[in-house]
Amino acid sequence: MSKTDQNQMDINTASQPNGSPAAGARKIQIFDTTLRDGEQSPGAAIAPERKIIIARQLARLGVDVIEPGFAVSSPGEFAAIERISRELQTVEIAGFARAVTGDIDAAVKATQDAAKRRLHIFISASDIHLQYQLRMSRAEVVARAREVIAYGKQFVEEIEFSAMDATRADLDFLTELTEAAIAEGATIINLPDTLGYALPEEITHMFTSVRRGARGGETVRYSAHCHDDLGMAAANSLAAVRAGASQVEVTVNGIGERAGNCSLEELAMILDTRASVIGVQTGIRQKEIFETSRLVSRMMHFPIAFNKPIVGRNAFQHESGIHQDGLLKNRSTYEIMDPEAMGIPRSMIVLGKHSGRHAIKHRLSEFGIELDNAQLDAVYAAFKEKADAQKIVTDEQLIRIAGEQTDTQPDPYVLTDLQVLAGSCSVRKATVALRDSSGKEAVFTAEGDGPLEAVVSCIRQGIPHASELEDLELHSLSTGENAHGEAVVSVLMNGERYRGTSIHADIVLAAAEAYVAACNAAILGSHVNKNVDETVDNVDKIGE
Ligand code: KIV
Ligand code: ZN
Q1: Do the domain assignments include residue 16?
Q2: Which DSSP string do the residues of 411-443 spell out, in sequence order?
Q3: Which residues surround ligand 2, an ion (CB under 5 A)?
Q4: How far is ligand 1, taken at its centre, from the CA of residue 192, in Å?
Q5: Which CATH number is 382's domain given?
Q6: Does 312 reside within a domain?
Q7: Measuring CA to CA, which of 108, 123, 478, 523 is 20 to 30 A from 76?
């Protein structure tokens, strides 16, 4: 087969997203370290008692191994690891330890109730670390590694040994250290790119050399643990897989020390989307990717970059008129993966100043709103004005524009006025006017510690079904004096999650509109669910 044919075949495969890999493809274990290395992201710490919530979701996602934390670091951390080990009996749990017996004792004890477990011991391998940090000679490091692996092996059969900073270590020494670890009973050898420094071809060379060079090197499994300092974590993890590694250590949303770790969702989707070339498979349940990403972001208070592959807000959104036109004709023109297969709400077309009439008409028809030509002209003109002012226009705003231009109110509630008293006074006050679909308007007032709290209280009074506010995210869409902010609100109703968004120069107004929009989506959604109506797709329902 010529190279061109092969390329064509790959593109064809890619246009049928999430196709199953070839039968019998090599299985790659996904080792998730979101709760250990990921938690080392500056600002991403999570209360130990909340770790269980993320761990449950990781199990649903289908990871093979969870590293829940660093047992020796605090009693709370120890308790969290103990609880996760007891509860999650289908996933292997890794107890993490430096090369000291105190750490090993804590890791062994915290994971003792796990159905499947391993002990993960690490020590540095590079001369830079040995000289300046450990102040140990190479011989001392080998001796220590032997000692602690033998110690840990008394308690746990499966031992993962990590040679920290492996990619900057002398290759002969790395091979000698690996050989010593294997001789003492290590069953998995992890060769981390701790500083995110290596190039993919160097990773290939390192894994191949160590596997072949170390005595017993072919009898153990290999793992990659790549950081993203130069943006190469996913490429380097892929190189390791292709050089024989059977495990990759990753984090959700790529969180982790400094620039983070290899992102779980990126690697999983690389391995799946290009399965016909790479020829491996994972146990990741793609439908859970979006929910896992958002849960980690919310719980660890760690925002996701808009342009982050797979899970970033823009990852499946197209603003160019040419792209939108192509997508409406056939999705594969500008998409290589199916966002819905990953649980990502389908809103592939971002309505902005480049959008054409066709895209506006199409989006409104998805919400059950059909316009004649004259109405479309009016809506399009009002839409363009809004898009010029704020760059992008949310679905809710478009629906509102359509309502204004056609003199109808498709939403159960519309926010007609908002007044907020904020600043350095001790109590913030809000007044909100809401109109229901019968045209009746009512005004509500409330106080709060902050303006948002006051606004939310008003809306709760005004919308009796006001569902539980789950999350409120505020983003700045631009800078400078006329900056616009985007608010994204998710609410829970009857166990389902619904989302509303809004953009405005006044961020408090954007938050209020987004909250009302989410309540509207919830009201319409539960109505739709009850009536098993075909319009279910019209509702922005997320996280199923
Ligand atoms: O980055 C690293 O080297 C690590 C090891 C301790 C596994 O996190
Ligand atoms: Zn790391």
Answers
A1: no
A2: SSEEEEEEEEE-SSSSSEEEEEEEEETTS-EEE
A3: 37
A4: 6
A5: 1.10.238
A6: no
A7: 123
Within-domain flag for 309: no
Structural domain ending residue among the three candidates 337, 371, 406: 406
- The CA radius of gyration of the chain, in Å to the nearest whole number, is 27
Atom of ligand 1 nearest to the CA of 165: 3
Distance 194 CA to ligand 2 centre (A): 6
Residues 402 and 427 in one domain: no
Ligand 1 atom with minimal separation from the 37 CA? 8
Q: Indicate whether 45 and 79 sit together in one domain.
A: yes
CA distance 222 to 166: 13
How much distance in Å is there from the Cα of 164 to the middle of ligand 1? Answer: 6
Residue nearest to atom 2 of ligand 1 (CA): 194
Q: Are residues 50 and 141 in the same domain?
A: yes
How far apart CA 44 and CA 38 sit, in angstroms, is 8
* Pair (293, 161) in one structural domain: yes
Instruction: Give me the number of domains the chain comprises.
Output: 3
Tell the residue number behind the tokens 């019209």, with chain if given: 538
Tokens matching residue 216: 């017993």
- Reduced to 3 states, what is the DSSP secondary structure of residue 445? strand
CATH number of the structural domain spanning residue 279: 3.20.20.70
**Same domain for 116 and 37:** yes
Q: pLDDT tens digits for 199-220?
A: 999 999 999 999 999 999 999 9
Question: Encoding tokens for residue 222?
Answer: 């290999």
Give the pLDDT confidence of 368-405 residue by residue, as tens digits: 788 899 999 999 999 999 888 877 788 888 988 998 88
Nearest ligand to the CA of 124 is 1
In order, the DSSP letters of 231-298 are S-HHHHHHHHHHTT--EEEEBGGG--STT-B-BHHHHHHHHHHTHHHH-EE----GGGHHHHHHHHHH
| CATH label of the domain that carries residue 486 | 3.30.160.270
Would you state the structure tokens that stand for residue 344, as one six-digit string? 């990502």
Q: Which of 33, 37, 193, 197 to mutate to test the pocket of ligand 1 (most atoms within 8 A of CB)?
A: 37
Quote the CA–CA distance of 511 and 497 in Å, as a whole number.
17
> Do 416 and 390 fall into the same domain?
no
Number of H helices, E strands in the chain: 18, 19
Residues 357 and 241 in one domain: no
Distance 391 CA to ligand 2 centre (A): 39
Query: Any residues with Cβ below 6 Å from ligand 1, and which?
Result: 37, 122, 162, 164, 190, 192, 194, 225, 227
Q: Go through the chain and tell me how many residues it has.
A: 544
Q: What is the pTM of this model?
A: 0.80
Q: What pLDDT, in 10s, does the model give residues 422-473?
A: 888 778 999 999 998 888 999 999 999 999 999 999 999 999 776 678 888 8
In the listed set 406, 434, 449, which residue is the last one of a domain according to the structure?
406
Pick the residue whose CA is nearest to atom 1 on ligand 1. Answer: 194
Q: Which of 176, 150, 147 is nearest to 163 (CA)?
A: 176
Domain range holding 144?
26-300
Residue 15 lies in a domain: no
Of 486 and 257, the one with more pLDDT: 257
User: Same domain for 95 and 223?
Assistant: yes
